[in-house]
């Protein structure tokens, strides 16, 4: 006798069983989650130790001028963050504050660091996501074409282009692109995320393009995309070259395997052979490079944001470092660590999805 649940499953997907995650995959996912938690705790411990090693009084560093004439404020700060307690207790309180999102108050903006990060991170996320989508689309496509047409003129040209993308410094490419496409041709805006007279759509994600689409404001979407395209392309140039070379190398390793020859012998179209058999087998190293590339552009956009006056986390980190804003510096450091931890976890999970053999490793 069938249960109501199984009958409902068959009604939802006629002719097919509902596929649940296998036990090896769940164990694989559990191991990766445990490693993620332990790595996160290790990073918070390192951040706490580095904070303790910084010379000077943290209360005075956070309160600035108020610490000079207001001993009560210093005492209240030390009691709030447990600075008057032993180090193990301080670390426990530090984790407690992190869990509640309390990263301290920035000395330059006099606002909570969490508020500053919530304002600057979406700008960088929008730039990084657009950049990595461009890099993945172009890099994988060009890499596959170069591998399929190995040692032809097309392959040689694409290898030269990829080498140029890797070799050109990002700051130099940004300055050249700004001069050519903004000053000379006037095709794109030179700075900021929107024109001065235009207001962003209602804040939902902080990504101007997404928020404008959700609000149905196509004029704001078009203007935000117009401002976004040049810095995103500059930021994508290096990763396009990198992904092109890695994709070409990875595809060449599997394109002559026996199962590929068997697929061709069955009479499958060449496009089907490349996309379904070759590219899937070549994906693991591409996933690794793509994940690291996204983490790099998410956390290393200081030069591009400075050139294009993009109000992102890179600009915030730069100003925090130049003004020795310790709470902001620690907040940015934890943000960078979290990005790399999450990206590595997602790469591991995608590995398990693409290659089932890794789930039992």
Q: What's the gist of this structure?
A:
Helix content is 74%, strand content 0%.
Descriptive report:
There is one protein chain. The chain is mainly alpha-helical. It folds into 2 domains: 22-99, no CATH class; 113-360, MetI-like (MetI-like fold, Orthogonal Bundle). 74% of the residues lie in helices and 0% in strands. It contains 16 helices and no strands. Helix 7 (113-148) runs antiparallel to helix 13 (270-299) and helix 9 (170-184) crosses helix 11. It is globular. It starts with a helix and ends in a 7-residue tail after the last helix. Residues 1-18 have low confidence and may be disordered.
Topology of this structure?
Elements: H1 4-12, H2 23-53, H3 58-63, H4 66-69, H5 71-80, H6 87-99, H7 113-148, H8 153-167, H9 170-184, H10 208-215, H11 218-254, H12 258-265, H13 270-299, H14 302-307, H15 313-322, H16 326-354
Helix pairs in contact: 2-16, 7-8, 7-11, 7-13, 7-15, 8-11, 9-11, 10-11, 11-13, 12-13, 13-16, 15-16
Distance between the ends: 38 Å
Number of strands: 0
Report the helical percentage: over 70%
Rounded average pLDDT: 81
Name of the CATH architecture of the largest domain: Orthogonal Bundle
Task: Give the key terms.
mainly alpha; MetI-like fold; 16 helices; globular; disordered N terminus
């Amino acid at each position: 006798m069938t249960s109501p649940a199984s009958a409902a499953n068959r009604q939802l997907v006629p002719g097919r069983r509902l596929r649940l995650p296998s036990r090896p995959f769940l164990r694989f996912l559990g191991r990766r989650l445990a490693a993620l938690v332990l790595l996160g705790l290790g990073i918070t411990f390192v951040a706490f130790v580095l904070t303790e090693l910084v010379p000077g009084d943290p209360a005075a560093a956070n309160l600035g001028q108020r610490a000079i004439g207001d001993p009560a404020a210093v005492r209240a700060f030390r009691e709030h963050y447990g600075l008057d307690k032993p180090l193990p207790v301080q670390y426990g309180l530090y984790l407690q504050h992190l869990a509640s999102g309390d990263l301290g108050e920035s000395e330059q903006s006099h606002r909570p660091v969490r508020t500053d990060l919530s304002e600057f991170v979406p700008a960088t996320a929008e730039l990084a996501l657009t950049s990595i989508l461009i890099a993945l689309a172009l890099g994988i496509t060009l890499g596959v074409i170069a591998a399929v047409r190995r040692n032809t003129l097309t392959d040689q040209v694409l290898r030269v282009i990829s080498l140029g993308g890797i070799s050109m410094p990002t700051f130099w490419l940004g300055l050249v692109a700004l001069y050519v496409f903004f000053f000379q041709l006037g095709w794109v805006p030179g700075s900021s995320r929107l024109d001065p007279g235009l207001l962003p759509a209602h804040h939902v994600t902080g990504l101007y393009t997404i928020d404008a689409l959700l609000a149905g404001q196509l004029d704001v979407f078009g203007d935000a995309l117009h401002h976004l395209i040049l810095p995103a392309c500059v930021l994508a140039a290096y990763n396009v070259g990198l992904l092109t070379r890695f994709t070409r190398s990875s595809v060449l390793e599997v394109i002559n395997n026996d199962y590929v020859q068997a697929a061709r012998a069955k009479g499958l179209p060449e496009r089907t052979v490349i996309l379904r058999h070759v590219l899937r087998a070549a994906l693991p190293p591409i996933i690794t490079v793509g994940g690291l590339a996204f983490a790099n552009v998410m956390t290393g956009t200081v030069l591009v944001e400075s050139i294009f006056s993009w109000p992102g986390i890179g600009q915030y980190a730069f100003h925090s470092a130049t003004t020795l804003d310790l709470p902001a510096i620690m907040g940015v450091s934890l943000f960078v660590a979290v990005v790399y931890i999450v990206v590595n976890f997602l790469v591991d999970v995608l590995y398990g999805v693409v290659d089932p053999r890794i789930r039992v490793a």
